[in-house]
TrEMBL record:
One of its GO terms (biological process) is defense response to virus. It comes from the Bacteria. Coiled coil: none annotated. Residues 1-133 are annotated as: Disordered. Residues 434-624 form the Helicase ATP-binding domain. PROSITE patterns: HD_CAS3, HELICASE_ATP_BIND_1. This is CRISPR-associated helicase Cas3. The keyword Nuclease applies. In the N-terminal section; belongs to the CRISPR-associated nuclease Cas3-HD family. GO terms for cellular component: cytosol. Keywords: Antiviral defense, ATP-binding, Helicase, Hydrolase, Metal-binding, Nuclease, Nucleotide-binding. Residues 32-49, 91-100 have a biased composition (Gly residues). It comes from Gemmata obscuriglobus.
């Protein structure tokens, strides 16, 4: 077999070697503290040769390649009768899909695709056009020559770079953990905040550190197998076990367990769970499964890089004497003549013993803290070297002096007020907003529409950072549109290096967000490195994001897991909590109950059962009614009436005929919105049709048209919309016509009528017409419970209804019982962890994401462009398409996108259920 060419040293190698030599001269105490290094005496052959980390790094720099010895010396030996060794395809080797450590074979974990209503799961970060990865089973005949592994790798070579050895990567991860969290005798600010965030006592720091150090050292031991090494070296190959599962089997083996138990201060069950789950693909049934094929894998535990370097490194850092007794057989597998060590009994013993005991432990906080810290350290230890960055880059992202103090927050507030003043939209702070600065660190703020809640939230932030500065300010919203508006109105006034918009199409939304004359147009908000995946957001200080981006860790989303170091040292505002579905609200409740961080939840109205749940989770209810806010809440705004569906259109035509009324017609289904817009084309005013089933390019245009047409001061206009109007649309209609919907949704829709105080003063109350559609396909009778009583209550009032009346009606007729919270995977899975990002929301997959067939080529060109601005345009081609229409797969597209029939699409009305041209 021909030896691989020698690779050039990676950038920064000389600096790393020098740093290693400096460390070796200083020495470190076990566990990461500075001091004398135990040489790992007796820790297996060659243990005495390891004097600190530098020797391991020198060995790690040997050039990967094949041993040129004759192939016949390294043939796979089959079982009786010359049977071959079955080798499974790669299923590990890096961080979970979408993360910095993603490697060949680890893709496909994330739920794919954009929610078709624009409010759901984002596509996998960095997903590109191309064929999806196809698993296959490879059979090696007995005569198949295996390449001899001269060097154990942990990471394959990135373009223009070099591979990372197993020892080198292990040291990278250990250093990343130390840079993030600190040493045994000295924690970083983030380390202290991390312990507080997970509600551990600060006295548990040393225990946490020891557990994390052990997890970092052992996390990739399982990569020492032929299949994994073949994959990393770019040869055809595969694995029988995921590498982290093999790490667990090794760590749980009696010979290794006896060795590590010298450190009684380390909770080895916690380490076992963290190691097995650090790629979020570790479940009770998915743990090293036997597929019944008799497959086997060649393990490389006798390799010098493993027994001499990796074992000795572990012994030195953990101060372990002697050597672990690792099973001698060269092959591991399940049954059959080709297997020399069958791990079935070991696996079952761990599953029924230590892992079950860990899962049933009443207190999971240490496990959760160590597992999350290992994932973050592994992501950094993988992503930073791959992109040519040094590990000490981390220190600049998590400084000891907090980055968000009173001066930082005041700068954002002052620039926002200056903007409002320039547009004659600012008078002064109202009493309600002033009071919000003194709210508690964990509060639920209920205030009517038009009260200025967002500026009030910034006053709350100012009060929080005055008491205790933090490193981040996070605004979390339920939808991309609301997050984008929050960024545009407030966050974008922060310095460009600090501000971030985070959701699935953020790059697209940032492109051209501001007019040329706007001072923010010159800011480069998108100057991040996408190769870092979630880590590219670590430098940001003030963020507007969808709630999934951060709270998705509750469902083991990998990207959100990598953002936990950001979340742990933040103040957080969660807006529009009324719109959270059961899964999202359960995640919010679980987060509030389990983690210690300042949080303000906001909305205009919220059913009393949910208010009580949030209070039980630790929030203090604030429903302030100073005189100015009471005036807003008590102002008569709505004349409410029931109408018949047949008379609705006539009422609208009459309103438009007057030439003075802005009309908003809200229906519950896209198809009905399209049909209505088509019927109204004979009006003197062309109706705007706005819903979720547009190409993103066209949806942005329809959104802008709707906001411009249905706002205070504008002349007559008609917009036909769906539920998308309930949030993020700053509009003000004279006449609201709406189909029957849940009470909370109706209140949100009514908030788009007579929104401004000036309009109420000059024109009087707005008109709200409610009717029941002939066929209701969206909401169940349970969803609509209490609606008739609520409408009758509003109609029966002696004067037009106010926002205070809406609150009274909601309390009286709204939901009486709270939904039982759903289990949160992060808090309930025990030793195991399996990613399931799609479970963060209650998603019914009626639609799929697609590209019009005629535009597939243009999409692929944009998606694969090396220019970041061009790549950012790719989401503009994506359109939600009903699954029932059966769009087809196109080999040029990634697996989560389909090709859709152009004949169904119109830029003005969106994608129809049938061909329209």
């Amino acid at each position: 077999m021909v030896a691989a060419p020698r690779a050039a040293p990676g950038r920064g190698d000389s600096e790393r070697v020098a740093a290693g030599q400096s460390r070796a001269r200083r020495g470190r105490r076990p566990g990461g503290a500075r001091g004398a290094v135990g040489g790992g005496a007796g820790a297996g052959p060659g243990a005495g040769e390891l004097a600190g980390d530098v020797q391991a790094r020198r060995r790690a720099r040997r050039v990967p390649g094949h041993d040129p010895r004759p192939a016949d010396r390294t043939r796979c030996r089959g079982g009786a009768g010359g049977a071959g060794v079955r080798v499974r395809p790669a299923c590990g080797g890096g961080a979970a899909a979408g993360g910095p450590g993603e490697r060949r074979g680890d893709r496909g974990v994330r739920a794919a695709g954009v929610r078709a209503d624009g409010r759901g799961v984002d596509p996998p970060s960095g997903a590109r056009a191309g064929r999806p990865h196809q698993d296959r089973l490879r059979v090696l005949p007995a005569s198949h020559p295996e390449g001899v592994v001269t060097q154990l790798l942990a990471k394959s070579a990135p373009p223009g770079g070099r591979a990372r050895t197993l020892v080198e990567h292990t040291l990278d991860v250990v250093e990343a953990a130390e840079a993030l969290f600190g040493f045994a005798d000295r924690s970083t600010r983030l380390g202290r905040e991390w312990v507080r965030f997970f509600r551990l006592d600060q006295t548990q720091w040393s225990r946490f550190h020891a557990n994390l150090l052990a997890a970092c050292l052992f996390h990739d031991w399982g990569k020492a197998n032929q299949g994994m090494q073949d994959v990393l070296a770019g040869r055809s190959g595969g694995q029988l076990f995921r590498h982290e599962h093999l790490s667990v089997l090794l760590l749980g083996h009696d010979g290794v367990e006896r060795w590590v138990c010298q450190r009684s201060d380390i909770d080895w069950d916690v380490v076992l769970g963290a190691v097995g789950s650090h790629h979020l693909k570790f479940g009770d049934q998915s743990f090293a499964p036997d597929d019944g094929t008799g497959a086997a894998v060649r393990v490389l535990f006798d390799h010098d890089d493993f027994r001499r370097d990796l074992v000795s490194l572990t012994a030195a850092r953990l101060q372990l004497s002697g050597a672990p007794a690792i099973p001698a057989p060269r092959y591991w597998g399940f049954g059959g003549g080709t297997t020399t060590f069958d791990p079935t009994e070991l696996r079952e013993g761990l599953r029924d013993g230590r892992l079950r005991r860990l899962s049933r432990a009443p207190d999971q906080r240490m496990l959760n803290a160590v597992r999350a810290a290992l994932i973050a350290a592994d992501a950094a230890g993988s992503g930073l070297p791959r992109t040519g960055r040094r590990i000490d880059w981390i220190g600049g992202q998590f400084p000891e002096t907090p980055g968000c103090d009173s001066v930082t927050v005041a700068g954002v507030i002052d620039r926002r007020i200056a903007d409002l003043t320039s547009r004659n939209k600012w008078v002064h702070w109202n009493e309600f907003q002033n009071q919000c600065e003194t709210l508690s660190a964990r509060a639920l703020l209920l205030a009517p529409c038009g009260a200025g809640k967002t500026l009030a939230a910034w006053r709350w932030i100012a009060g929080r950072v005055k008491q205790r500065p933090v490193n981040r300010v996070l605004f979390l919203y339920p939808t991309r549109a609301t997050a984008t508006e929050g960024f545009k109105d407030y966050v974008s006034w922060a310095p460009e290096a600090d501000a971030a918009l985070m959701h699935g199409t953020a790059g697209y939304d940032l492109n051209g967000m501001f007019a040329v004359e706007d001072p923010r147009a010159k800011k480069a908000f998108t100057t991040t490195d996408p190769r870092l995946f979630a880590l590219q957001h670590w430098p940001k200080r003030i963020v507007s994001a969808t709630v999934d981006q951060f709270f998705g860790f509750m469902a083991y989303g990998y990207g959100p897991m990598c953002l936990l170091p950001v979340l742990a040292d933040s103040v957080i505002v969660v807006d529009e909590v009324h719109s959270f579905d059961r899964s999202m609200f359960s995640a919010l409740l679980g987060f509030l109950s389990a983690f210690d961080v300042p949080v303000l939840c906001m909305t205009a109205t919220l059913p009393e059962p949910r208010q009580k749940q949030l209070v039980a989770a630790g929030l203090t209810l604030s429903n302030p009614r100073p005189d100015d806010l009471k005036t807003i809440a008590d102002t008569p705004r709505y004349r409410v009436a029931r109408v018949n569906e047949r008379e609705v259109e006539d009422r609208i035509r009459a309103a438009v005929g007057s030439g003075k009324r802005r009309v908003l017609w809200v229906v519950n289904q896209v198809s009905r919105a399209q049909a209505i817009a088509a019927r109204l084309t004979d009006l003197s005013l062309s109706p705007i049709c706005y819903h979720s089933r547009f190409k993103l390019d066209d949806r942005v245009k329809r959104h802008q048209e709707t906001v411009k047409a249905i706002r205070a001061g504008e002349p007559a206009a008609v917009a036909v919309t769906t539920q998308v109007c309930e949030m993020s649309l700053d509009i003000d209609a004279d006449l609201l016509v709406t189909e029957a919907c849940p009470i909370t949704s109706l209140i949100q829709r009514m908030g788009r009528c007579r929104r401004g105080r000036d309009e109420v003063t000059s024109k009087g109350p707005g008109e709200v017409l409610i009717y029941a559609p002939a066929k209701e396909r969206v909401y169940s009778s349970d969803d609509l419970a209490g609606l008739d009583g609520f409408i009758s209550f509003l109609i029966g009032l002696p004067s037009p209804a106010s926002q205070a009346d809406l609150e009274i009606g909601l309390d009286r007729f709204g939901p009486k019982g709270a939904d039982a919270p759903k289990l949160n995977s992060f808090l309930a899975s025990g030793a195991y962890a399996e990613a399931s990002e799609d479970s963060f929301r209650d998603i019914e997959a009626f639609n799929v994401s697609a590209v019009l067939a005629s535009e597939v080529g243009a999409y692929v060109t944009a998606a694969e462009s090396k220019d970041c601005m061009t790549r950012a345009k790719a989401p503009g081609f994506v359109v939600p398409v009903p699954r029932k229409l059966r769009p087809v797969q196109d080999p040029r597209l990634p697996h989560y996108l389909f090709a859709a029939d152009d004949r169904h699409y119109d830029p003005q009305t969106g994608y129809w259920d049938y061909p329209i041209c």
